[in-house]
Amino acid sequence: MDFTGKVALVTGGGGGIGRATALGFALRGAKVMVVDADTTSGQATADIVAQRGGTVAFVQADVTQSASVQAYVKKTMDAYGRIDCFFNNAGIEGQVRPTQEYDEDMFDKVIAVNLKGVFLGLRHVLPVMVAQGSGAVVNTASVAGLFGGPGMPAYVASKHGVLGLTKVASTDVAGLGVRVNAVCPGPVETRMMRSLESQRNPDDPESIHAAMSRMIPAGRYALPEEIANTVLFLCSDLSSNTTGTQVVVDGGRSGSGGTSVRR
Hints:
The protein is of the alpha/beta class. It contains eight helices and seven strands, in the order E-H-E-H-E-H-E-H-E-H-E-H-H-H-E. The chain has helices at residues 16-27, 39-51, 66-80, 104-132, 153-173, 191-200, 205-214, 224-235; strands at 7-11, 31-36, 55-60, 85-88, 135-140, 178-185, 246-249. A seven-stranded parallel beta sheet has the order 3-2-1-4-5-6-7, with helices on both faces. The longest helix has 29 residues, at 104-132. The protein is globular and about 50 Å long. The N and C termini lie far apart (38 Å).
């Protein structure tokens, strides 16, 4: 997977999966633009990439605002002149609370970041790729986009929506040299999972980690780098005829039906 001469744009680049993917692109020769709402974490990713010898820049952006999305696309084009790979990754977990008790403002916020943010990324990056006649997009969905789960109505709904957007966008641009796919991580060793564990059991979040690990045939959470490797594959020429689909990276949990398979 050689990305020499390619340009990779990564939203949510300050988080665990985004950071691992930005670094993965850079170590394989890509010029990288890191986008994040949080300046501290986003710049930290850019600094790590630069320390490893990569070509990188950072731009702060709010993915829920069209003007902000247009600005990160423009900054990427001004810096590098093209966008070959787009990891449309920014997302938030929201609350863990039953549907009948879920806060309406939080619901709107999760949908705005996780679903509208993905749409706006597609809306403003796809024209660049279509004009080039080439490009690959990977949207971050989740196994929550394939199944339900208690206490996460906004997150689950948003990730189902991401898969819908992926399928529609892929058909819109398939004949124009552009591919659009999604990655569906299961539990990953990231800040987001620490937050969800703490919300489910504030007194003993480690018990949630242990219980969820037992439900995964592989016996563990994924590492951010393992999700990144899937994203890199989907953006590479090795997947040149793959579009409109999702790749699940969950250690076999969805294949087991979510039942506990380890003691």
